[in-house]
Specification:
By secondary structure, the chain is an alpha+beta fold. It has 21 helices and twelve strands. The chain folds into two domains: about 70 residues, no CATH class; about 350 residues, no CATH class. Bound molecules: iron/sulfur cluster (2 copies).
Length: about 475
Protein backbone atom coordinates (compact mmCIF):
# COMPACT_ATOMS: atom_id res chain seq x y z
CA UNK A 1 0.00 0.00 0.00
CA UNK A 2 1.46 3.33 -1.01
CA UNK A 3 2.35 5.74 1.73
CA UNK A 4 0.56 8.95 0.83
CA UNK A 5 1.92 11.63 3.10
CA UNK A 6 5.21 12.15 1.35
CA UNK A 7 3.97 11.79 -2.23
CA UNK A 8 4.56 15.46 -2.72
CA UNK A 9 5.63 15.25 -6.36
CA UNK A 10 2.91 12.91 -7.49
CA UNK A 11 0.68 14.52 -10.15
CA UNK A 12 -2.12 12.27 -8.87
CA UNK A 13 -2.01 13.98 -5.50
CA UNK A 14 -1.98 17.45 -7.01
CA UNK A 15 -5.01 16.76 -9.21
CA UNK A 16 -7.12 15.41 -6.37
CA UNK A 17 -10.00 17.40 -4.93
CA UNK A 18 -9.07 19.04 -1.66
CA UNK A 19 -9.59 16.32 0.92
CA UNK A 20 -11.15 16.89 4.28
CA UNK A 21 -10.27 15.74 7.78
CA UNK A 22 -6.80 14.41 8.50
CA UNK A 23 -5.95 14.07 4.84
CA UNK A 24 -6.36 17.79 4.36
CA UNK A 25 -3.36 18.30 6.62
CA UNK A 26 -1.43 15.50 4.98
CA UNK A 27 -1.31 17.22 1.61
CA UNK A 28 -1.15 20.81 2.82
CA UNK A 29 0.70 22.62 0.02
CA UNK A 30 2.54 24.94 2.38
CA UNK A 31 3.96 21.99 4.31
CA UNK A 32 5.01 20.27 1.12
CA UNK A 33 6.69 23.41 -0.17
CA UNK A 34 8.50 23.94 3.12
CA UNK A 35 9.68 20.33 3.26
CA UNK A 36 10.87 20.51 -0.32
CA UNK A 37 12.78 23.71 0.43
CA UNK A 38 14.33 22.30 3.61
CA UNK A 39 15.29 19.02 1.99
CA UNK A 40 16.96 20.79 -0.93
CA UNK A 41 18.79 23.16 1.40
CA UNK A 42 20.07 20.30 3.54
CA UNK A 43 20.81 18.11 0.51
CA UNK A 44 18.60 15.57 2.24
CA UNK A 45 16.80 12.65 0.77
CA UNK A 46 13.09 13.29 1.08
CA UNK A 47 12.44 15.18 -2.12
CA UNK A 48 15.40 14.07 -4.20
CA UNK A 49 14.76 10.40 -3.50
CA UNK A 50 11.08 10.85 -4.30
CA UNK A 51 12.07 12.18 -7.72
CA UNK A 52 13.80 8.92 -8.55
CA UNK A 53 11.71 6.12 -9.95
CA UNK A 54 12.49 2.66 -8.74
CA UNK A 55 10.39 -0.45 -8.76
CA UNK A 56 12.96 -2.74 -7.16
CA UNK A 57 11.94 -4.59 -4.04
CA UNK A 58 14.85 -3.79 -1.72
CA UNK A 59 14.83 -0.10 -2.58
CA UNK A 60 13.65 2.19 0.22
CA UNK A 61 11.22 3.59 -2.35
CA UNK A 62 9.27 0.36 -2.59
CA UNK A 63 7.05 -1.22 0.06
CA UNK A 64 7.24 -5.00 0.64
CA UNK A 65 4.12 -5.47 -1.48
CA UNK A 66 5.77 -3.68 -4.43
CA UNK A 67 3.92 -0.37 -4.20
CA UNK A 68 5.96 2.84 -4.21
CA UNK A 69 6.68 4.95 -1.15
CA UNK A 70 9.08 7.76 -0.45
CA UNK A 71 12.04 8.06 1.87
CA UNK A 72 11.47 9.94 5.14
CA UNK A 73 13.71 12.92 5.72
CA UNK A 74 15.51 12.15 8.99
CA UNK A 75 18.08 14.92 8.70
CA UNK A 76 21.82 14.72 8.14
CA UNK A 77 22.75 12.14 10.78
CA UNK A 78 20.52 9.28 9.64
CA UNK A 79 19.73 8.30 6.06
CA UNK A 80 17.57 5.52 4.70
CA UNK A 81 19.55 3.93 1.90
CA UNK A 82 17.92 0.54 1.50
CA UNK A 83 14.90 -1.53 2.44
CA UNK A 84 14.13 -1.32 6.13
CA UNK A 85 12.74 -4.42 7.80
CA UNK A 86 10.30 -3.26 10.43
CA UNK A 87 11.58 -4.04 13.89
CA UNK A 88 9.68 -6.46 16.10
CA UNK A 89 9.77 -5.05 19.62
CA UNK A 90 10.02 -8.59 20.91
CA UNK A 91 13.53 -8.70 19.44
CA UNK A 92 14.75 -5.86 21.69
CA UNK A 93 17.34 -6.42 24.46
CA UNK A 94 14.91 -6.80 27.37
CA UNK A 95 12.49 -9.28 25.70
CA UNK A 96 15.45 -11.37 24.46
CA UNK A 97 16.87 -11.34 27.95
CA UNK A 98 13.58 -12.32 29.57
CA UNK A 99 13.39 -15.30 27.19
CA UNK A 100 16.89 -16.32 28.33
CA UNK A 101 18.51 -15.74 24.93
CA UNK A 102 21.36 -13.68 26.38
CA UNK A 103 22.53 -16.28 28.88
CA UNK A 104 21.74 -17.26 32.43
CA UNK A 105 23.68 -14.49 34.17
CA UNK A 106 21.84 -11.82 32.20
CA UNK A 107 18.48 -13.50 32.74
CA UNK A 108 19.06 -13.86 36.48
CA UNK A 109 20.06 -10.24 36.77
CA UNK A 110 17.01 -9.00 34.90
CA UNK A 111 14.32 -11.25 36.31
CA UNK A 112 15.54 -12.02 39.83
CA UNK A 113 17.66 -9.13 41.06
CA UNK A 114 16.05 -6.67 43.42
CA UNK A 115 17.93 -3.36 43.57
CA UNK A 116 19.66 -2.65 46.86
CA UNK A 117 18.80 1.00 46.59
CA UNK A 118 15.22 2.05 47.46
CA UNK A 119 15.18 4.86 44.88
CA UNK A 120 16.05 2.30 42.22
CA UNK A 121 13.37 -0.08 43.48
CA UNK A 122 10.76 2.65 43.12
CA UNK A 123 11.80 3.91 39.69
CA UNK A 124 13.06 0.88 37.74
CA UNK A 125 10.44 -1.81 37.12
CA UNK A 126 12.85 -4.64 36.40
CA UNK A 127 14.50 -4.38 39.81
CA UNK A 128 11.57 -3.40 42.00
CA UNK A 129 10.85 -5.59 45.00
CA UNK A 130 7.14 -5.20 44.28
CA UNK A 131 6.19 -3.84 40.87
CA UNK A 132 3.07 -2.27 42.37
CA UNK A 133 5.40 0.26 44.02
CA UNK A 134 6.49 1.40 40.54
CA UNK A 135 4.27 4.15 39.11
CA UNK A 136 4.47 3.10 35.45
CA UNK A 137 3.01 -0.30 36.30
CA UNK A 138 -0.26 1.51 36.87
CA UNK A 139 -0.09 4.07 34.04
CA UNK A 140 0.75 1.34 31.51
CA UNK A 141 -2.01 -0.94 32.72
CA UNK A 142 -4.85 1.57 32.45
CA UNK A 143 -7.47 0.26 30.11
CA UNK A 144 -7.95 1.82 26.72
CA UNK A 145 -10.37 4.69 27.16
CA UNK A 146 -13.08 5.28 24.58
CA UNK A 147 -12.86 8.07 22.03
CA UNK A 148 -15.31 10.95 22.25
CA UNK A 149 -17.69 10.41 19.31
CA UNK A 150 -18.10 14.18 18.87
CA UNK A 151 -15.18 15.58 16.87
CA UNK A 152 -14.75 19.34 16.57
CA UNK A 153 -16.21 20.67 13.30
CA UNK A 154 -13.85 22.59 11.03
CA UNK A 155 -10.32 22.56 12.37
CA UNK A 156 -7.24 24.51 11.37
CA UNK A 157 -4.36 21.99 11.46
CA UNK A 158 -1.83 24.75 12.05
CA UNK A 159 -3.70 26.12 15.06
CA UNK A 160 -4.36 22.60 16.35
CA UNK A 161 -0.66 21.71 16.08
CA UNK A 162 0.27 24.78 18.10
CA UNK A 163 -2.43 23.98 20.62
CA UNK A 164 -1.47 20.34 21.15
CA UNK A 165 2.18 21.32 21.64
CA UNK A 166 1.15 23.85 24.29
CA UNK A 167 -0.94 21.20 26.03
CA UNK A 168 1.98 18.73 26.00
CA UNK A 169 4.30 21.35 27.49
CA UNK A 170 1.75 22.26 30.12
CA UNK A 171 1.53 18.57 31.04
CA UNK A 172 5.30 18.46 31.59
CA UNK A 173 7.09 17.96 28.26
CA UNK A 174 10.33 19.87 27.75
CA UNK A 175 10.28 19.39 23.97
CA UNK A 176 7.44 18.46 21.61
CA UNK A 177 7.51 17.72 17.89
CA UNK A 178 5.18 16.35 15.25
CA UNK A 179 6.40 13.91 12.60
CA UNK A 180 4.67 12.77 9.43
CA UNK A 181 4.12 9.06 10.04
CA UNK A 182 6.19 6.74 7.85
CA UNK A 183 6.09 2.93 7.63
CA UNK A 184 9.87 2.75 8.11
CA UNK A 185 9.61 3.74 11.73
CA UNK A 186 6.59 1.64 12.64
CA UNK A 187 7.15 -1.59 14.54
CA UNK A 188 6.43 -4.82 12.65
CA UNK A 189 2.78 -5.84 12.25
CA UNK A 190 1.30 -7.22 15.43
CA UNK A 191 4.17 -6.11 17.64
CA UNK A 192 3.60 -3.34 20.14
CA UNK A 193 5.87 -1.77 22.73
CA UNK A 194 4.06 -2.30 26.02
CA UNK A 195 5.59 -2.72 29.42
CA UNK A 196 2.80 -4.78 30.90
CA UNK A 197 1.82 -6.81 27.83
CA UNK A 198 -1.83 -5.73 28.03
CA UNK A 199 -2.13 -2.47 26.14
CA UNK A 200 -3.32 -3.98 22.90
CA UNK A 201 -5.59 -2.21 20.45
CA UNK A 202 -7.80 -2.87 17.47
CA UNK A 203 -5.08 -1.74 15.03
CA UNK A 204 -2.54 -4.28 16.25
CA UNK A 205 -2.59 -6.37 13.09
CA UNK A 206 -2.36 -3.51 10.55
CA UNK A 207 0.76 -3.41 8.37
CA UNK A 208 3.22 -0.53 8.89
CA UNK A 209 2.19 0.97 5.53
CA UNK A 210 -1.51 0.77 6.36
CA UNK A 211 -0.94 2.23 9.83
CA UNK A 212 1.03 5.20 8.50
CA UNK A 213 -1.70 5.89 5.96
CA UNK A 214 -4.56 5.58 8.43
CA UNK A 215 -2.79 7.63 11.15
CA UNK A 216 -0.72 10.31 9.43
CA UNK A 217 0.97 11.96 12.43
CA UNK A 218 3.22 11.07 15.34
CA UNK A 219 3.50 13.29 18.41
CA UNK A 220 6.83 12.91 20.18
CA UNK A 221 7.76 14.55 23.47
CA UNK A 222 10.80 14.46 25.70
CA UNK A 223 11.57 15.23 29.31
CA UNK A 224 15.12 16.37 30.09
CA UNK A 225 17.25 14.72 32.77
CA UNK A 226 18.68 16.95 35.46
CA UNK A 227 22.16 17.98 34.38
CA UNK A 228 23.85 18.08 37.78
CA UNK A 229 22.73 14.67 39.01
CA UNK A 230 23.53 13.13 35.62
CA UNK A 231 27.18 14.06 36.28
CA UNK A 232 27.06 11.12 38.70
CA UNK A 233 26.89 8.68 35.82
CA UNK A 234 27.77 5.11 36.80
CA UNK A 235 26.17 5.70 40.20
CA UNK A 236 22.66 5.40 41.66
CA UNK A 237 22.41 9.21 41.56
CA UNK A 238 22.84 9.19 37.77
CA UNK A 239 20.30 6.38 37.54
CA UNK A 240 17.80 8.55 39.37
CA UNK A 241 18.40 11.40 36.95
CA UNK A 242 17.50 9.02 34.14
CA UNK A 243 14.78 6.81 35.59
CA UNK A 244 12.49 9.37 37.10
CA UNK A 245 12.12 11.13 33.73
CA UNK A 246 10.63 7.92 32.37
CA UNK A 247 7.96 8.22 35.08
CA UNK A 248 7.31 11.86 34.18
CA UNK A 249 7.07 10.90 30.52
CA UNK A 250 4.64 8.09 31.28
CA UNK A 251 2.33 10.45 33.15
CA UNK A 252 2.40 13.22 30.60
CA UNK A 253 1.96 10.90 27.62
CA UNK A 254 -0.93 9.11 29.26
CA UNK A 255 -2.59 12.47 29.94
CA UNK A 256 -1.94 13.67 26.37
CA UNK A 257 -3.29 10.41 24.98
CA UNK A 258 -6.48 10.93 27.01
CA UNK A 259 -6.76 14.54 25.89
CA UNK A 260 -6.56 13.58 22.19
CA UNK A 261 -9.26 10.96 22.70
CA UNK A 262 -11.48 13.43 24.52
CA UNK A 263 -11.13 15.70 21.47
CA UNK A 264 -12.50 12.91 19.29
CA UNK A 265 -9.35 11.52 17.69
CA UNK A 266 -7.51 8.21 17.94
CA UNK A 267 -4.26 8.00 19.92
CA UNK A 268 -2.21 4.80 19.63
CA UNK A 269 0.83 3.98 21.75
CA UNK A 270 3.50 1.36 21.26
CA UNK A 271 3.44 1.40 17.45
CA UNK A 272 6.25 3.80 16.54
CA UNK A 273 10.01 3.77 17.05
CA UNK A 274 10.73 6.88 19.18
CA UNK A 275 14.05 7.73 17.52
CA UNK A 276 12.67 7.69 13.97
CA UNK A 277 9.76 9.90 15.03
CA UNK A 278 12.03 12.21 17.05
CA UNK A 279 14.40 12.72 14.12
CA UNK A 280 11.57 13.36 11.65
CA UNK A 281 9.89 15.73 14.13
CA UNK A 282 13.08 17.74 14.57
CA UNK A 283 13.62 17.06 18.28
CA UNK A 284 17.29 16.37 17.65
CA UNK A 285 19.91 14.49 15.66
CA UNK A 286 21.44 11.06 16.25
CA UNK A 287 24.90 11.08 17.80
CA UNK A 288 27.80 8.62 17.61
CA UNK A 289 26.65 7.43 21.04
CA UNK A 290 23.37 6.20 19.52
CA UNK A 291 21.42 8.81 21.47
CA UNK A 292 19.17 11.61 20.26
CA UNK A 293 20.96 14.94 20.77
CA UNK A 294 18.67 17.92 21.25
CA UNK A 295 19.40 21.61 20.90
CA UNK A 296 18.64 22.68 24.48
CA UNK A 297 19.60 19.59 26.50
CA UNK A 298 22.05 17.62 24.37
CA UNK A 299 21.69 13.88 24.90
CA UNK A 300 20.10 14.13 28.37
CA UNK A 301 16.57 13.54 27.11
CA UNK A 302 14.24 10.59 27.46
CA UNK A 303 12.32 9.62 24.33
CA UNK A 304 9.06 8.00 25.43
CA UNK A 305 6.81 5.80 23.37
CA UNK A 306 5.18 8.37 21.02
CA UNK A 307 1.51 8.87 20.08
CA UNK A 308 0.32 7.88 16.61
CA UNK A 309 -2.83 9.79 15.71
CA UNK A 310 -5.38 10.79 13.08
CA UNK A 311 -5.67 14.29 14.56
CA UNK A 312 -5.21 16.73 11.65
CA UNK A 313 -1.86 18.38 12.29
CA UNK A 314 1.08 19.96 10.47
CA UNK A 315 4.29 17.95 10.64
CA UNK A 316 7.61 19.53 11.62
CA UNK A 317 10.81 18.71 9.77
CA UNK A 318 14.29 17.53 10.81
CA UNK A 319 16.82 20.01 12.22
CA UNK A 320 20.52 20.55 11.67
CA UNK A 321 22.41 21.32 14.89
CA UNK A 322 25.81 20.31 13.55
CA UNK A 323 25.83 16.91 15.33
CA UNK A 324 26.89 15.31 12.05
CA UNK A 325 29.97 17.56 11.87
CA UNK A 326 30.77 17.32 15.60
CA UNK A 327 30.67 13.52 15.84
CA UNK A 328 33.12 13.14 12.94
CA UNK A 329 35.75 14.93 15.03
CA UNK A 330 34.82 14.41 18.68
CA UNK A 331 34.63 10.69 19.68
CA UNK A 332 34.51 11.67 23.38
CA UNK A 333 31.75 9.14 24.05
CA UNK A 334 33.79 6.36 22.41
CA UNK A 335 36.87 7.30 24.43
CA UNK A 336 34.94 7.24 27.70
CA UNK A 337 32.73 4.19 27.09
CA UNK A 338 33.75 1.56 29.69
CA UNK A 339 32.75 -1.32 27.42
CA UNK A 340 34.07 -0.04 24.07
CA UNK A 341 30.56 -0.32 22.65
CA UNK A 342 30.80 2.93 20.69
CA UNK A 343 32.52 2.95 17.33
CA UNK A 344 35.51 5.19 16.58
CA UNK A 345 34.95 4.59 12.86
CA UNK A 346 32.53 5.96 10.28
CA UNK A 347 28.82 5.30 10.05
CA UNK A 348 27.61 1.91 8.88
CA UNK A 349 24.53 0.72 7.02
CA UNK A 350 22.35 -1.42 9.25
CA UNK A 351 18.88 -2.61 8.23
CA UNK A 352 18.84 -0.16 5.31
CA UNK A 353 19.77 2.81 7.48
CA UNK A 354 23.10 4.64 7.47
CA UNK A 355 24.03 5.84 10.96
CA UNK A 356 26.51 5.40 13.80
CA UNK A 357 25.70 2.09 15.41
CA UNK A 358 26.65 1.13 18.95
CA UNK A 359 27.15 -2.46 20.07
CA UNK A 360 24.09 -2.75 22.29
CA UNK A 361 25.05 -6.24 23.46
CA UNK A 362 28.35 -5.27 25.10
CA UNK A 363 26.72 -2.13 26.53
CA UNK A 364 23.90 -4.22 27.99
CA UNK A 365 26.01 -7.13 29.21
CA UNK A 366 27.97 -5.02 31.67
CA UNK A 367 24.88 -4.50 33.82
CA UNK A 368 24.86 -7.65 35.96
CA UNK A 369 28.51 -7.02 36.88
CA UNK A 370 27.87 -3.51 38.11
CA UNK A 371 24.39 -3.92 39.58
CA UNK A 372 25.62 -3.08 43.10
CA UNK A 373 26.91 0.26 41.88
CA UNK A 374 24.41 1.36 39.26
CA UNK A 375 21.75 0.22 36.80
CA UNK A 376 22.42 2.15 33.59
CA UNK A 377 25.87 3.43 32.69
CA UNK A 378 24.94 6.71 30.94
CA UNK A 379 28.57 7.79 30.57
CA UNK A 380 28.15 8.48 26.84
CA UNK A 381 25.28 10.85 27.62
CA UNK A 382 27.02 12.66 30.46
CA UNK A 383 30.35 13.29 28.70
CA UNK A 384 28.91 14.43 25.34
CA UNK A 385 29.87 18.09 24.71
CA UNK A 386 26.25 18.79 23.72
CA UNK A 387 25.04 17.66 27.17
CA UNK A 388 25.40 20.82 29.16
CA UNK A 389 23.16 23.03 31.34
CA UNK A 390 20.68 25.06 29.29
CA UNK A 391 22.67 28.30 29.74
CA UNK A 392 23.55 31.37 27.68
CA UNK A 393 27.14 30.16 26.95
CA UNK A 394 25.81 26.85 25.74
CA UNK A 395 23.37 28.60 23.41
CA UNK A 396 26.15 30.83 22.04
CA UNK A 397 28.27 27.77 21.15
CA UNK A 398 25.32 25.95 19.62
CA UNK A 399 24.22 28.95 17.56
CA UNK A 400 27.76 29.53 16.32
CA UNK A 401 27.97 25.95 15.05
CA UNK A 402 24.48 25.99 13.57
CA UNK A 403 24.97 29.28 11.74
CA UNK A 404 28.32 28.29 10.25
CA UNK A 405 28.01 26.95 6.69
CA UNK A 406 28.47 23.17 6.68
CA UNK A 407 31.75 23.24 4.77
CA UNK A 408 33.29 25.72 7.19
CA UNK A 409 32.26 23.83 10.35
CA UNK A 410 35.31 21.58 11.04
CA UNK A 411 37.50 24.36 12.54
CA UNK A 412 34.54 25.55 14.66
CA UNK A 413 34.03 21.97 15.91
CA UNK A 414 37.74 21.64 16.79
CA UNK A 415 37.60 24.91 18.74
CA UNK A 416 34.41 23.94 20.62
CA UNK A 417 35.82 20.48 21.40
CA UNK A 418 39.00 22.07 22.76
CA UNK A 419 36.95 24.34 25.02
CA UNK A 420 34.91 21.36 26.22
CA UNK A 421 38.00 19.26 27.00
CA UNK A 422 39.68 22.17 28.76
CA UNK A 423 36.79 23.14 31.01
CA UNK A 424 35.04 19.79 31.54
CA UNK A 425 37.91 17.35 31.02
CA UNK A 426 38.57 14.67 28.41
CA UNK A 427 37.44 11.99 30.89
CA UNK A 428 34.96 13.95 33.00
CA UNK A 429 34.17 12.80 36.51
CA UNK A 430 32.77 14.94 39.26
CA UNK A 431 31.89 14.25 42.86
CA UNK A 432 28.14 14.65 43.30
CA UNK A 433 26.24 14.77 46.57
CA UNK A 434 22.48 14.38 46.47
CA UNK A 435 19.85 13.42 49.06
CA UNK A 436 22.52 12.00 51.34
CA UNK A 437 24.14 9.97 48.54
CA UNK A 438 27.72 10.79 47.65
CA UNK A 439 29.60 9.61 44.59
CA UNK A 440 32.81 10.04 46.56
CA UNK A 441 31.92 6.94 48.55
CA UNK A 442 31.69 3.39 47.36
CA UNK A 443 28.26 1.86 47.52
CA UNK A 444 27.86 0.25 50.92
CA UNK A 445 30.05 2.82 52.64
CA UNK A 446 27.52 5.15 54.26
CA UNK A 447 26.41 6.36 50.89
CA UNK A 448 22.83 6.98 51.82
CA UNK A 449 20.80 8.10 54.76
CA UNK A 450 17.69 6.09 54.06
CA UNK A 451 16.88 3.68 56.93
CA UNK A 452 15.27 1.20 54.51
CA UNK A 453 18.42 0.88 52.38
CA UNK A 454 19.71 -2.69 52.44
CA UNK A 455 23.28 -1.90 51.42
CA UNK A 456 26.13 -2.84 53.78
CA UNK A 457 26.75 0.17 56.03
CA UNK A 458 28.95 -1.56 58.57
CA UNK A 459 32.30 -1.00 56.84
CA UNK A 460 34.26 2.07 57.94
CA UNK A 461 33.62 5.19 55.87
CA UNK A 462 36.41 6.10 53.45
CA UNK A 463 36.57 9.76 52.57
CA UNK A 464 38.17 10.27 49.16
CA UNK A 465 40.88 12.84 48.68
CA UNK A 466 40.00 15.76 46.40
CA UNK A 467 36.80 16.48 44.53
CA UNK A 468 36.71 13.54 42.17
CA UNK A 469 34.26 10.88 43.13
CA UNK A 470 34.35 7.12 42.97
CA UNK A 471 33.10 5.74 39.69
CA UNK A 472 32.77 2.03 39.24
CA UNK A 473 33.87 0.32 37.24
CA UNK A 474 36.41 2.37 35.38
CA UNK A 475 37.34 1.38 31.87
CA UNK A 476 40.27 -0.88 32.68
CA UNK A 477 38.23 -2.83 35.23
CA UNK A 478 35.75 -3.86 32.57
CA UNK A 479 38.53 -5.37 30.42
CA UNK A 480 38.18 -8.59 32.36
CA UNK A 481 34.72 -9.40 31.10
CA UNK A 482 34.08 -7.35 27.97
CA UNK A 483 35.60 -8.59 24.74
CA UNK A 484 36.93 -5.59 22.87
CA UNK A 485 36.81 -5.25 19.10
S1 LIG B 1 28.56 1.18 28.20
FE1 LIG B 1 27.98 3.23 28.91
S2 LIG B 1 29.14 4.66 27.63
FE2 LIG B 1 29.18 2.64 26.63
S3 LIG B 1 27.47 2.70 25.19
FE3 LIG B 1 26.72 1.75 27.07
S4 LIG B 1 25.83 3.46 28.25
FE4 LIG B 1 27.13 4.37 26.66
S1 LIG C 1 30.43 12.71 22.62
FE1 LIG C 1 31.10 13.63 20.70
S2 LIG C 1 31.14 11.92 19.25
FE2 LIG C 1 29.91 11.28 20.99
S3 LIG C 1 27.80 11.79 20.45
FE3 LIG C 1 28.60 13.54 21.60
S4 LIG C 1 29.40 14.92 20.03
FE4 LIG C 1 29.12 12.92 19.05
Amino acid sequence: MAQTIELMDSPKVKQQQAPTGPEAAAVDERVLARRAHEAKKAKATAVHEADRVSTDIGSPLVAPDGTPRTVPNLGRTVTMVGMVTNVDVNDGPHPKNIRGELGKAMNNWYTKTVAKDPLMRATDSSHAADKRNFLNTHTNATSKGVINPKKPGVVDPKALSKHIKKVAKHLGADLVGIAAAHPAFMYASGSRYVQDGEAQDTYQSMTPDALAKRFPFVIQTTVAWDHDTLQAHRHHIGDMSYHHTSMKNAMLMKALEGYIKEMGYTAIRGAVNPQGAGLAAGLGELGRNGMMISERFGARIHMPDPILTDMPLIADGPIDLGVEDFCKVCRKCANNCPTNSISFGPKVVYNGIEKYKINWLTCYKVRPYVADHYGSCLTCVAVCPFTKPDSWWRRVGGTLLKMTPIKARPPVVHALKWIDDTFWGEFPSRRVKFLGYDTGLKVGEHNCTDPSCTANHKEPQIIPVGDVGFYAPIKKQTDVFVKRG
